[in-house]
Amino acid sequence: MPNLLSQSAQYAYRVCAGIVVIVLLLNGCSGPEPKPDARSHEPSAKAVTQKNTTPRTTHSTNSTGNKVVHLAQGVLGSPYKYGGSSPNGFDCSGLVYYTHSKLGISVPRTTRQQAQHADTLSLRDVEPGDILFFKIYGNRISHVGIYTGNNQFIHAPKSGKFVSYASIDDPFWRQRLVKAGRLH
Fold it and tell me: Pick the catalytic residue: 59, 92, 100, 117?
């Protein structure tokens, strides 16, 4: 099939598509913003390498982390819905909120609050059920996913998408990963 678009038209199309992607990501999944809190602070990128102080039983089929993963796997394919926290629709922080609340773990509702509440982990200490935080655009954490093992995580990506797996080996996610944490 012949190429019907000139190179400049193709370039313009790619630029417009990129802008659309950025806008969709900015409208992403952090849920409604909480009221400002004088004590709040954004973790730095260096936080990813800090040591965790909260132990969790590892590799047990009945561990809390594996139960979180199992619950997240149970809603794979659910639609993205801004502010959603049920199988009818999730945003990223709503998925984390849902899986943890099903296990009786009280966690904040928004991505930013979850990042502040989570105990920071080193990436080498991350286990299934831990959560990964990302800065998609700008300087604030705006996305969260549930680590499942083997450098994979489950998340509710953005409007028009569904709860699905992604890989932290993907350059897009790797360069935006800023914190790993554990909620309990």
Answer: 92
Overall average pLDDT of the 161-166 stretch: 98
The two tokens of residue 31 are 């849920």
- Catalytic status, residue 92: yes
- Active-site residue, selected from the candidate residues 16, 100, 117, 155: 155
Q: Given a cut of 60, is residue 99 above it in pLDDT?
A: yes
Active site residue 16: no
State the DSSP string of 71-113: HHHTTTTPBB-TT-EETTEE-HHHHHHHHHHTTT----SSHHH
The phi and psi torsions of 111 (rounded to 5 degrees) equal: -55, -50
Q: Which amino acid is at 162?
A: F
Chain mean pLDDT for the chain:
78
Q: What is the pLDDT of residues 129-149, one digit of tens each?
A: 999 999 998 899 999 999 999
Give the span between the Cα atoms of 60 and 119, in whole angstroms. Answer: 21
Catalytic residue chosen out of the listed positions 41, 70, 143, 184 = 143
Q: What are phi and psi of 17, to 5 degrees?
A: -60, -40
Active site residue 29: no
Mean pLDDT over 13-33 rounds to 44
